[in-house]
Amino acid sequence: MDKALQITLESQMLDRHLLAGTESFAESLTYFPDLTGYNLGPEGYLEHLRKAKRAVGIPVIGSLNGVSLGGWTDYAKKMEDAGADALELNLYYVVTDPDLKSGDIESAQVDLVADVRSAIRIPLAVKISPFVTALPNFARRLVAAGANGLAWSGRERNR
């Protein structure tokens, strides 16, 4: 399967799961942003990176949302080739399969980091979702897999 198509299909599957049931209550229609206004698609994003790199004199950091092996690794390399000086890999995954265990999900994410790391030479930062069961262990595993930096995508609550 074409890598760009694989990425697009995986993204559409995630969108379908995220939107499931959001029309059930009127207020839920605003839970997720409308992506049609700024979503460039895989090839459009690569071109956007190329243009940004030519236009500015500062480092350009590409952003990749990945949850599975396969096309994401090739796409990370294409982002580097397009001019990204570093890559942020977002490991945000909404689990919908009740048979998936947390350890299996985290191991798959560590494998993804290792595969992306093997495909690129630029620095790799990993953004961790707030749904990790043992953060210190998971962070150590991500660094061992090749992450150069870690960020947490948790949100502070207003008190």
How would you explain this protein's 3D organization?
The structure is a single chain. With 159 residues, this protein is an alpha/beta fold. It has a single domain (3-152), classed as Aldolase class I (TIM Barrel), CATH 3.20.20.70. The chain is 45% helix and 13% strand. The protein has five helices and four strands; from the N terminus they run ααβαβαβαβ. The protein has helices at 3-19, 41-55, 71-81, 102-119, 135-145; strands at 61-65, 86-91, 124-128, 149-152. A four-stranded parallel β-sheet has the order 1-2-3-4, with helices on one face. The mean pLDDT is 82.
Distance between termini? 49 Å
The total of helices stands at 5
Q: Write the element-wise H/E pattern from the N-terminal end onward.
A: HHEHEHEHE
- CATH architecture designation: Alpha-Beta Barrel
Count of individual domains = 1
Please bin the fraction of helical residues: 40-55%
CATH class: Alpha Beta
Q: Indicate the structural class.
A: alpha/beta
Order of strands across the biggest sheet? Answer: 1-2-3-4
Mean pLDDT: 82
Computed over alpha carbons, the radius of gyration is 17 Å
User: How many strands appear in the DSSP assignment?
Assistant: 4
- Our estimate of the beta-strand percent is 5-15%
